[in-house]
Amino acid sequence: MNRNRTLATCAILVAAAWSNQPAWADEEHYGPHAYSSSHGHHDARAGEHLHHLLNQQKAIGLTEEQVKKLKGIDLDYDRARIKSEAEIRIAERELLGLVEDEKSDMSAIEAKVKQSEMLEADLRVTALKARRAALAVLTPEQLENAKTAHEKRRQAMMRGYGHGPDKGDYEHEEKGHPR
Fold first, then answer.
1. Degrees, nearest 5: CA angle 167-32-93
2. Which of 37-55 are b and which e, b meaning 16 or more Cβ less than 10 Å from the residue's Cβ?
3. CB of 72 within 8 A of CB of 153?
4. Closest Cα partner for 90 from 26, 25, 22, 160?
5. In the chain, where the domains are located
6. d(Cα 99, Cα 16) in Å, to the nearest integer?
7. How far is 129 from 73, CA to CA, in rounded Å?
8. Which of 116, 145, 153, 163 is the most exposed, fewest CB within 10 Å of its CB?
9. DSSP letters of the chain?
10. Mean pLDDT of successive 10-residue stretches along the chain, which has 179 residues
């Protein structure tokens, strides 16, 4: 009975470990954030948010000093993200090794699961801190400009997926030529 419970627990842990592994095949299409777990995209949003702010610097009205600060935040976040993702991958590989070894102690497996989840949580918090730090650089007017630019970009994407008027509208609006 105890052996069956141990085998069932290991099967669950193996399934969890496999579902939390990086999607290696998709990485070339979706970048290093292409995790198959539900958590993996939280850190991607912070990086995307920083890049969108920098790409829209003229529309938002950023100063050179603000751009420099945002680039510094972006670089610091990328460093932390790359390091964290590597640590998560290593922890997940180690967990898989423990789960596949029938002689592994359940307390060691449990500790490795907790370590992996804590690393994931730390990465999410780092992403949230980077996003907040980036937003703190902007003035209230620039925040509104950023929201407006984001909404235009979102609407253009929706039109591109067939959810609205001609997707060319956005391109003309951006160039100052309303349709």
1. 145
2. eeebebbbebbebbeebbe
3. no
4. 22
5. 2-138, 140-179
6. 11
7. 10
8. 163
9. -HHHHHHHHHHHHHHHHHHTSB-HHHHHHHGGG-BSSSSTTHHHHHHHHHHHHHHTHHHHT--HHHHHHHHHHHHHHHHHHHHHHHHHHHHHHHHHHHHH-TT--HHHHHHHHHHHHHHHHHHHHHHHHHHHHHHHHS-HHHHHHHHHHHHHHHHHHHHHTTSSS-THHHHHHHTT---
10. 53 47 35 39 68 90 96 96 97 97 95 97 95 95 92 87 54 46
Q: Which two tokens stand for residue 96?
A: 């898989």
- The two tokens of residue 147 are 């929201």
What integer pLDDT is reported at residue 39 of this predicted model? 45
Q: Which pLDDT score is estimated for 150?
A: 85
What secondary structure, in 3-state letters, does 120-160 show?
HHHHHHHHHHHHHHHHHHCCHHHHHHHHHHHHHHHHHHHHH
| The two three-digit tokens of residue 142, written as one number | 């620039």
Please name the amino acid found at residue 8: A
